[in-house]
Design brief:
Strand order of the largest sheet: 1-2
Structural class: mainly alpha
Mean pLDDT: 82
Number of strands: 4
Number of helices: 6
Shape: extended
Largest sheet: 2 strands, antiparallel
Radius of gyration: 18 Å
Length: 124
């Protein structure tokens, strides 16, 4: 197994990350508040909930307009647009408003019996 300094070489495509991301995040949170990588055009990875939430809400600084999808390019490099629900406001606002009722606590509660039955069937 390769030794990776996840604080400086963060790579969500690394097989080690795919095998056990929870351990990597457990290491990162106390080790550094923001991991870094030169991959993906200079990626920054906030590791704490508060920082992730603040970044998600600060679309002026941290935009979702053209996320990097691989080491070699962003979605816009391929002529692709971010799905509306993943994009920045105000573009995503109408789409979000349209989809939110399907994910309300009441709607999710209604789906519980179906999800439980399906889960039991798949486990069996």
């Amino acid at each position: 197994m390769t030794v990776v300094d996840w604080t400086q070489e963060s790579n969500h495509f690394d097989p080690e990350y795919a095998a056990d991301p929870i351990s990597i995040w457990r290491h990162l949170r106390p080790a550094c508040p923001v991991a870094r990588s030169e991959k993906f055009r200079g990626m920054w990875v906030p590791t704490r909930y508060e920082d992730i939430e603040a970044s998600a809400r600060d679309t002026g600084t941290f935009s979702s307009r053209s996320p990097v999808v691989a080491e070699f390019g962003a979605m816009s490099d391929f002529g692709l647009e971010v799905p509306p629900i993943s994009s920045d406001p105000p573009y995503h606002t109408a789409f979000r408003r349209m989809l939110l009722p399907f994910f309300s606590p009441g709607r999710i509660k209604q789906l519980e019996p179906f999800v439980e039955q399906l889960s039991d069937r798949l486990i069996d």
